[in-house]
């Protein structure tokens, strides 16, 4: 009984983790392709500038 | 008798005398280095005889015969 | 924060340098015009811009206008002029124009390694003396000289030293100094150089004149007089005189700084690549080789192996889950949703990796411009330009960069037509569908795969001919293209590009495909009353059945096929994962027949591309109406072609 509950929780966790990962990557990607990717880090490039007239 | 660049055959050379084209095309060709007196050489023709490949100022450029015909040589 | 602007001739290595300075991997290729828009980044805490490659600051072409406007309006703190050292004269022609803009200038001599091979040496010290700008020698492709460059950037930024303006012949200089002496010149916008303004007045530069208040009549007559006198003296128009003068200065500097040795000519690949008879067969053979290597050789081995692996994984999940009494819903999502859906896409990673690798080598070695050269005559009869072939070749990898690369085509109609036909060439993401269908229905019939590409080409030809027939003006335009030197692809660049494209594919599998697989699985397992039901009664089936009748004439009027097409709008790889979740890759024969499989493939090949490509199309076409026409044409053409293919198959088999 306990094993079944644990097994269910495990599978559910795996699925939720995968989904959460997928969504977070998609959000990150969306940001990268917008002006939000313009950072002031020492060495970086802005992908958003390819799609917008001006980011800064 | 005016000779134009499209009349050159492969291996022939010439020197630019004038460019007889509308402002925009003339500027474009001159920007690419076709100024008065500069030497040009026809390197090859494309498989169907057009466009042509020429060297000007030490680099290779391809242009159609229609554009080459506005470049007058001496 | 200070701003740096990278500028230089097309194909001189600006983007490679940009990548080195910013630590990123923007798209690089060895054909003129890869950077079609500016890119921004950070280096050492300074903002850096990669501007499109230009030959001049003329007011005519869009890229040149963009770069010119940028430098004039934004007033960057330092202009970094990248000079192709093997093309010194033409590069210095642009440098001469940049020097007049009144901004600090730094010259970067690139491609030092090629220089040695060509037997040319450049006296950097002399060049620096003559231009009044610091000179740094680098090799962007090898990554050498970057530290020295970074040090010089800091130095130039703090010194703020202006370069020397090129001096023209006395006859021209006399007019320039007289114009500068007039009060009118004090009205030029802040930051502009008087000398620059005077030259623009002599040239009668449209962009400059429109930015200035009307000159007083007396001054206007003086300018007119000066222009007339120059014209009479040089027997040419003033704009041409200035270009001529600039090139004279460039010649003079180049002659003084450059020592040419005699070079020996090696084997010339070009003599075959552009050979009268061999060129086009060679091009076809190279493309066939690319596909044979990636899809046939590599894909043939790896795809079945990976398929088995994912099938095994799915079975194991079911077995283990059953043993521990996991809900069928949960184990179903994991095994039949995620593993089946994502797995179906991931099986294509090895062959796409090889395809991306080979395409990147083709782009890097300088062959692309030659293809444009040899194909121009043929493309012109289709209302396209020789440059249209570049997007079509890149489109075999992915339509998005392909559509963006069409921007180098000068003529608007040809550019738009190229944008519309590029998605007809099957991209890497459509390949999984074809591979799935072909291995299931036509095992061993290798000749069908090339036919798909051929069909894509036919669609391009038909669209082109039709557009040409409808176009009343039949205008032709200039086709002027620099043919870059052949070079060995840089391993670094090839690797970066291949890795980025392959990772992009894997990332799509892990994100949008994963999500849609789970959603498709849930929708296909439950009814609208949320009862676990057979797929036939599921929500997905109900939705699919609404559109399925449209496709009945094409032979795939069942809901699974329609739903797969819908998910394909998000990403074409989804079609395979949807089919594998709803039908199962092993049961395709239960619904498809060989004729409907062929018409299905045809429809997918030609119908409107994925959402990313559609938005790229929108960006390039620039109007919603044109985009709508384009998508309607693609989809309508796909429908008719699929119908035709099916009829032919039914009648002949």
From TrEMBL, chain B:
Annotated GO molecular function terms are: transition metal ion binding
Q: Which UniProt keywords apply?
A: Iron
Query: Which range is the signal sequence, renumbered to this chain?
Result: none
Ferrous iron transporter FeoA-like domain boundaries: 3-74
Write down the SUPFAM superfamilies for this protein, in alphabetical order.
C-terminal domain of transcriptional repressors
Q: Which organism is it from?
A: bioreactor metagenome
User: One short Pfam family name for this protein?
Assistant: FeoA
Membrane spanning residue stretches: none
The name this protein goes by in its record = Ferrous iron transporter FeoA-like domain-containing protein
Q: Does the keyword Iron apply?
A: yes
């Amino acid at each position: 009984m306990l094993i079944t509950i644990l097994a269910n929780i495990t599978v559910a966790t795996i699925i939720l983790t995968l989904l959460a990962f997928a969504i977070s990557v998609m959000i990150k990607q969306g940001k990268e392709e917008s002006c939000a990717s313009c950072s002031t880090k020492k060495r970086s490039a802005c992908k958003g500038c390819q799609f917008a007239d001006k980011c800064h | 008798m005016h000779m134009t660049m499209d009349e050159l055959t492969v291996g022939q050379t010439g020197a630019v005398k004038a460019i007889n084209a509308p402002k925009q095309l003339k500027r474009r060709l001159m920007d690419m280095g076709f100024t008065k007196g500069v030497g040009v050489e026809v390197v090859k023709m494309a498989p169907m005889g057009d466009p042509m490949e020429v060297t000007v100022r030490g680099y290779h450029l391809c242009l159609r015969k229609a554009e080459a015909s506005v470049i007058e040589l001496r | 924060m200070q701003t740096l602007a990278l500028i230089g001739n097309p194909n001189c290595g600006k983007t490679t340098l940009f990548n080195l300075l910013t630590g990123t991997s923007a798209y690089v290729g060895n054909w003129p015009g890869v950077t079609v828009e500016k890119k921004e980044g950070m280096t050492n805490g300074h903002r850096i811009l990669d501007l499109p490659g230009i030959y001049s600051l003329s007011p005519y072409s869009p890229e040149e206008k963009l770069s010119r406007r940028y430098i004039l309006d934004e007033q960057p703190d330092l202009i970094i002029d990248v000079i192709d050292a093997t093309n010194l004269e033409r590069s210095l022609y642009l440098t001469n124009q940049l020097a007049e803009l009144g901004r600090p200038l730094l010259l970067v001599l690139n491609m030092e390694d090629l220089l040695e091979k060509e037997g040319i040496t450049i006296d950097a010290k002399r060049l620096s003396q003559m231009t009044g700008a610091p000179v740094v020698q680098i090799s962007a492709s090898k990554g050498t000289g970057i530290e020295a460059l970074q040090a010089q950037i800091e130095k130039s930024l703090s010194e703020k030293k202006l370069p020397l303006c090129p001096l023209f012949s006395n006859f021209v200089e006399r007019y320039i100094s007289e114009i500068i002496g007039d009060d009118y010149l004090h009205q030029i916008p802040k930051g502009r150089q008087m000398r620059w303004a005077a030259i623009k007045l002599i040239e009668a530069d449209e962009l400059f004149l429109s930015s200035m208040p009307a000159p007083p009549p007396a001054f206007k007559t003086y300018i007119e007089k000066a222009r007339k006198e120059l014209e009479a003296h040089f027997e040419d128009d003033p704009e041409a005189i200035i270009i001529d003068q600039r090139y004279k200065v460039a010649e003079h500097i180049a002659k003084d700084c450059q020592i040419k040795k005699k070079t020996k000519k090696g084997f010339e690949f070009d003599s075959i690549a552009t050979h009268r008879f061999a060129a086009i067969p060679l091009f076809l053979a190279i493309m066939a080789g690319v596909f044979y290597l990636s899809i046939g050789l590599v894909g043939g081995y790896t795809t079945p192996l990976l398929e088995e692996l994912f099938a095994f994984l799915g079975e194991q999940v079911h077995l283990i889950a059953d043993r521990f009494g996991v809900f069928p819903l949960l184990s179903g999502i994991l095994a039949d949703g995620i593993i089946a859906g994502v797995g179906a896409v991931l099986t294509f990673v090895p062959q796409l990796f090889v395809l991306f690798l080979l395409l990147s080598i083709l782009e890097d070695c300088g062959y692309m411009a030659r293809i444009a050269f040899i194909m121009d005559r043929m493309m012109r009869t289709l209302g396209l330009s020789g440059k249209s072939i570049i997007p079509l070749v890149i489109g075999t990898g992915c339509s998005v960069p392909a559509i963006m690369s069409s921007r180098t085509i000068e003529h608007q109609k040809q550019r738009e037509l190229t944008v519309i036909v590029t998605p007809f060439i099957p991209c890497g993401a459509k390949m999984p569908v074809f591979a799935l269908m072909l291995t299931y229905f036509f095992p061993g019939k290798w000749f069908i795969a090339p036919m798909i590409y051929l069909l894509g080409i036919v669609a391009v030809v038909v669209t082109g001919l039709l557009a040409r027939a409808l176009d009343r003006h039949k205008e032709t335009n200039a086709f002027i293209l620099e043919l870059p030197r052949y070079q060995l692809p840089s391993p670094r660049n090839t690797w970066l590009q291949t890795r980025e494209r392959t990772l992009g594919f894997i990332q799509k599998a892990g994100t949008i495909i994963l999500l849609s697989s789970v959603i498709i699985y849930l929708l296909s397992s439950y009814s609208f009353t949320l009862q676990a039901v057979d797929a036939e009664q599921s929500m997905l089936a109900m939705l699919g059945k609404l559109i399925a009748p449209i496709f009945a004439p094409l032979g795939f009027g069942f809901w699974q096929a329609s739903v797969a097409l819908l998910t394909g709008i998000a990403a074409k790889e989804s079609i395979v994962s949807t089919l594998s979740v709803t039908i199962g890759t092993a049961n395709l024969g239960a619904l498809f027949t060989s004729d409907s499989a062929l018409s299905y493939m045809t429809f997918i090949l030609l119908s409107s591309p994925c959402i990313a490509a559609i938005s790229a199309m929108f960006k390039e076409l620039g109007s919603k109406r044109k985009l709508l026409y384009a998508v309607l044409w693609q989809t309508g053409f796909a429908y008719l072609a699929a119908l035709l293919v099916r009829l032919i198959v039914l009648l002949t088999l």
